[in-house]
Request: fold
Amino acid sequence: MTVSSPLRVVPVRLNRPALHPRPVRYRALVRLSLRRHRGTPAAMALASALLTVWVLRTAHDLVRVPAERAATSCAELPYPDRCDATVRDVSDALQAVQHAQFALVAVPALVAALLGAPLLAQEYERRTHRLLWTQPVPRQRWLAGQLLVPGGASVALGIVAAVLGGRLRAVTSPTLTHASAFSALPYNSFGPVLATATVPALAIGVLAGELIRRTVPATVCALAGYTAVLTLLTWLRRFRQPTLTRFPPHGYDLAPDDWLLRDGVVTPDGRRLSYGQCGPAGCPDGSRVFDVHHSASQLWPTQWTQAALTVPLIALALLTVHRSVRRRLP
Reply:
């Protein structure tokens, strides 16, 4: 005869499911963003290295060629026939500098098109945003995780580009290029203007991707938007510092790096006329020359003012993105 043992009741403690799950930490979102954009730092490092080699080689040639021209007594006009090759080398070196400056100015535009625009547009196209939006991840935290890695990469790229542009400016003299640093191309290719341009470019690209939600149209709109902003800021540079007016006794004698805005003559009755308004008979007797310009000492304040103007632009673009993400349906 067998005796069965009594059943033993083992208590099991069940945890009540949390009504408010713990949100995902920023560290996890950063790791996810690093995995998603793991190719971005490598691609930017490679692009920065290639750009650095090109710009430094161009700067080296610009230092070498004028030195060779001076050594061969080809620096004074008129040039003898034996100086044709040397003069051509100088012209080629100056053209290479312009190409390098164009490349530096294009860096923020590429950030807007290739880094900013696809950032959110690809998420919406692939529907991958729904995976995290249905998890305990606040949308603003998801957006911050998306922006962290590309934002840091764009800042680093802007600083590298500005340093390279400063190197080009250091070896380029206005007497050699016959252009002031206030000119549109050199002005946007160095200093605080270029160093801070990549961040608003990224913000404009992200805004285009958020509003359009398609990668290719967002890329086109990001390029157009950044180009419009750059054109406007470049045009406004003449108004950021007070203009200087002079009445030189011997005509035009500005420094090579000054920026001439307007010149002409002042008639005896106080009217200001451009040279084209004087007519075939010439300017009235007793007129004196005047010029309105920005001095070279106003260059850096103008650049820093433009850099400061990008701060509200960045804030406005990112605030618009944030509000759109919060209100968007999955």
The chain has a mean pLDDT of 84. The beta strands are 244-246, 259-266, 272-273, 288-294. Residues 84 and 301 are 41 Å apart (CA to CA).
